[in-house]
Design brief:
EC 2.7.4.8; alpha/beta; 22% strand; Rossmann fold; transferase; 8 helices
């Protein structure tokens, strides 16, 4: 019987909404979902590990990856480049495993063009005031950069109509529960299963 292809789950939303925190909590609960590590030219934050949180690259290395078409998507965001290495994603899906991409909105829209069958989830903050608080509490950005991120965030929130689902990140455990429910429902969609069950009927 033909193996069911894995599900590409794309989790994105404005900077500071908690994508990384929600993604990490989801992976702790559901080890069947693999994490696709993005490449970036931004500097590592305290505690981040190369090859685990991101593949940290110089701008020269990143541009070489673009030229060699080694990225599923890439985007420049607040002066840094982010992208998704394509080989690992395709290999994982072909093995029937689910993989989650935690990426910025620009990148998610590029993935949608190449993988329209993916599951696209937009993570929303409870409010813009709360979003600003989360960015400020990181303690890693200047006031100018915070203001820049808030301006970008407002534009990104207006793009949520390009996603399949919207999940509010009010409490991390609640956001994780909502995402898990969406993934289960997507695996039960008839267009993903119809060929599998046709084969069962024809084998009788």
């Amino acid at each position: 019987m033909k193996k069911e292809r894995g599900l590409l789950i794309v989790l994105s939303g404005p900077s500071g909404v908690g994508k990384g925190t929600v993604c990490a909590a989801l992976r702790k609960q559901d080890t069947d979902i693999l994490y696709s590590v993005s490449a970036t030219t931004r500097s590592p934050r305290e505690g981040e590990v190369n090859g685990v949180n991101y593949f940290f690259k110089t701008k020269e290395q990143f541009k070489e990856m673009i030229e060699k078409d080694q990225l599923l998507e890439w985007a420049e965001y607040v002066g840094n480049f982010y992208g998704t290495p394509v080989d690992y994603v395709e290999k994982t899906l072909s093995e029937g495993k689910d993989i989650i991409l935690e990426i910025e909105v620009q990148g998610a829209l590029k993935v949608r063009e190449k993988f329209p069958e993916g599951l696209f989830i937009f993570l929303m903050p409870p409010s813009l005031a709360e979003l600003r608080n989360r960015i400020v509490n990181r303690g890693t950005e200047t006031e100018d950069l915070i203001n820049n991120r808030m301006t970008v965030a407002k534009d990104e929130i207006e793009m949520m109509n390009k996603y399949d689902y919207v999940v509010e990140n009010d409490e991390v455990h609640l956001a994780v529960d909502r995402i898990k429910a969406i993934v289960i429902a997507e695996h039960c969609r008839k267009d993903r299963l119809i060929e599998k069950y046709k084969q069962l009927v024809e084998a009788e």
